[in-house]
Amino acid sequence: MQVDKNAKIFPVEDEKKRWRSHRAVCREVHLLSNPCDDRPESHLEFLRGGVIRAKKRGGVESLRGAQSIEVFGLRRTDLVEQRGERERLVRTAIERALKAEEIAVGELRAERRKEQEQLATDLLNDARKLLEAQQPYLAVARAVFKEYGLK
Q: Is residue 1 assigned to a domain?
């Protein structure tokens, strides 16, 4: 039996349903995440230091996540380092905002407390800019915000 060269490059859930003609109804279920259409965090977990793994549900690893990691080479050293750097940037931005809020809570003088609260709000709004659609490693930023319970 000859293996279709597209099977490894473009994996699908069931080879019998692979779309082979523009005249046929497409019934294939692709196994690669498309970050423009899918939310990568639905199939991938972004861990500290830029590490990535397929998400597990009920102890079962996401096949789409595992295939995406493999085919796209998402564990390449350069990508792990870049994701790690983005994670640190997002985490630092959030920590600054939280520290400013902590200082505001402890401030006895109303005027100074108000200034510090405004600073905390501004810092958190700046951090949220890292969640804008055009930002690189957006799923990493979302994962960090989720970890802190922020949106």
A: no
**Res 6: pLDDT:** 47
Residue 8: both structure tokens together: 């490894």
Task: Give me the count of residues in the chain.
Answer: 151
Cα 42 to Cα 105: distance, rounded to the nearest angstrom? 36
* Residue 85, domain member (yes or no): yes
Residue 67 inside a domain? The answer is yes
Mean pLDDT over 140-146 rounds to 96
Cut 0.85: pTM above it: no
How many CA atoms are closer than 13 Å to the CA of 111, on its beta-carbon side?
0
Query: How many CB atoms sit inside 10 A of residue 35's CB?
Result: 11
Question: At which residue do the structure tokens 């549900």 appear?
Answer: 57
Domain that holds residue 84: 31-147
pLDDT digits (tens, 9 = 90+) for 80-102: 999 999 999 999 999 999 999 99
Positive or negative, the CA dihedral 91, 93, 99, 101 is: negative
Total number of domains in the chain: 1
By C-alpha distance, which of 26, 68, 28 is closest to 45?
Answer: 68
Instruction: Say what the pLDDT of residue 87 is.
Output: 97
